[in-house]
Design brief:
7% strand; Glutathione S-transferase Yfyf (Class Pi), Chain A, domain 2; 8 helices; four-stranded mixed sheet; 2 domains; alpha+beta; 232 residues
Length: 232
């Protein structure tokens, strides 16, 4: 199993966590996003969307984190609890997965994007984050885990999103007791959760430092070019 990844990307952390849970021997291939290594011809040949994470299992190539962990659950899971075969149970797991991708993670991404480049998030975007977490609170009022009484693939994806809320945005979960209870449970029970999250936080700070330095250099170069044009 080869995994092309960068730990600062939440979807990559999802796959790292899930692989640890399944105790899989994975060959990790780190890609430097700022050096645009994901656009190298050999990687685009492997994955035309040039996105991370990308998993290679023999002749099988899978990208998109949810697709990867579903593949791993079905091929390497000891039973079907992580991704149920029962149609109704699977539908619930899928719904939670799509909620994380399309609502929770999206709201976090939209709010955080301007912060990434040194700006501030918009209050209306932060409200959408609060609304999305409110939905998660209602989900977790019903059961121990996100889609029932058993851990499923949906818990891995959403746990990484909530970790980003907690670590990157310092989002206060105290008003969401069910989310807080579940989040603490994830930190205790998901193998490698604390270590992966801690390393991701450190590497993200390094990445942001490099990114902002590059942006500052680009802006300075643009200003110099504009000044030169004015004197021509």
């Amino acid at each position: 199993l080869d995994l092309y990844y960068n730990i600062i990307a939440p979807p990559c952390r999802v796959v790292l966590l899930f692989a640890k849970w399944l105790k899989l021997d994975v060959n990790l291939i780190e890609m430097d996003i700022l050096k645009r290594e994901q656009y190298k011809p050999e990687f685009i040949k492997l994955n035309p969307q040039h996105c991370l994470p990308t998993l290679v299992d023999g002749d099988v190539v899978v990208w998109e984190s949810s697709a990867i962990i579903i593949y791993l659950a079905e091929k390497y899971g000891k039973d079907d609890t992580l991704y149920p075969k029962d149609i109704a149970q699977r539908a619930k797991v899928n719904q939670r997965l799509f909620y994380d991708i399309g609502t929770l993670m999206r709201s976090v991404h939209v709010y955080f994007q301007p912060i990434l480049i040194g700006g501030e998030g918009k209050p209306e975007d932060f409200k959408k984050v609060q609304e999305a977490v409110g939905v998660l609170e209602r989900f977790l009022h019903e059961s121990r885990w996100l889609a029932g009484e058993h851990l499923t693939v949906a818990d891995f994806t959403t746990a990484v999103t909530v970790a980003a809320l907690d670590g990157t945005l310092n989002f206060d979960l105290i008003s969401y007791p069910n989310v807080l209870r579940w989040y603490e449970q994830c930190k205790r029970e998901l193998i490698g959760y604390t270590e992966i999250t801690r390393e991701a936080a450190q590497r993200t700070e390094e990445f942001l430092g490099r990114f902002r330095a590059m942006r500052a250099a680009e802006l300075q170069q643009q200003q110099q070019q504009q000044q030169q044009q004015q004197y021509q």
